[in-house]
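User: Can you predict the 3D structure of Peroxidase? Sequence below.
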Amino acid sequence: MGTSLARSVALFTLLLCLLLPSHGHGKLSTKFYAKSCPSVAAIVRSVMEQAVAKEPRMGASIIRLFFHDCFVNGCDASILLDDTSTFTGEKNAGANTNSVRGYEVIDAIKTQVEAACKGTVSCADIVALASRDAVDLLGGPTWNVQLGRKDSRAASQSAANANLPGPGSGAASLVAAFAAKGLSARDMTALSGAHTVGRARCLFFRGRIYTDQNVNASFAAARQQTCPQSGGDGNLAPFDDQTPDAFDNAYYTNLMAQRGLLHSDQELFNGGPQDALVRKYSGNARMFATDFAKAMVKMGGLAPAAGTPTEVRFNCRKVN
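Assistant: Sure. Here are the predicted structure tokens for Peroxidase:
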């Protein structure tokens, strides 16, 4: 093969590789956008500061959005894809349709990031950064976010329905669900502490306050005032009624007093192996904060399966 022909073939191959969707995340790094989009962290922080100042609950919602994205097919922003006439995404999966929100905040961040660094920063990385800032802005720990994720060109409602733990989950099923993602029982217990902030709909805790035996009577009675046995499915109650918008370790103190809002919450302190760690987190806020940050980094490393078509979306709601 002549030199000029070889160069042409090599150039064509390079262009083809650049045009085709990439696969997987590759190696993540805290410095991934240091040269290509150095302002991304500041942009995300600015929008999140405004969103949380306007509505503290939004911080909890963004944390939940990150979890519900990563726990299905990896941290690939698949949860952000809107349904179309030919595509069914994850937004309307059972565990998402009534509990995940904050999409418009991610849209606002993406718009500003695209204006600064067009086609450079993935929606998946934006969600990861936003969730870190949400925790920090609510008074919780911070950490260095590993970056370099890509956005999936597909989503799976069936996988979301199958993989996301429900509010009625037992301790054993919670441990198994997290283990399937490479997360330990300790990771699960720490990550569950995100329920120290945010609200839940009556639909998800009605069974807990009317039928569970391991529930504080006064707590159940208070929750029943806004969550009748029939109707009022959308009525909200705080996960932590002591400090509902502060990211602290009160969640674990509540569990020890049988004041967990969801059945799945109280399962972490119900005579099982997690009891000891709940006691430790309740008495040691620093230990909880450290373990939570480590677990968030670990969960943030969950990647799409090899061979999954990915890209950097220009619009988080649809593929390019």
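Residues 3-24 have pLDDT under 50 and may be disordered. Residues 23-164 form a domain with the Peroxidase; domain 1 fold (CATH 1.10.520.10).
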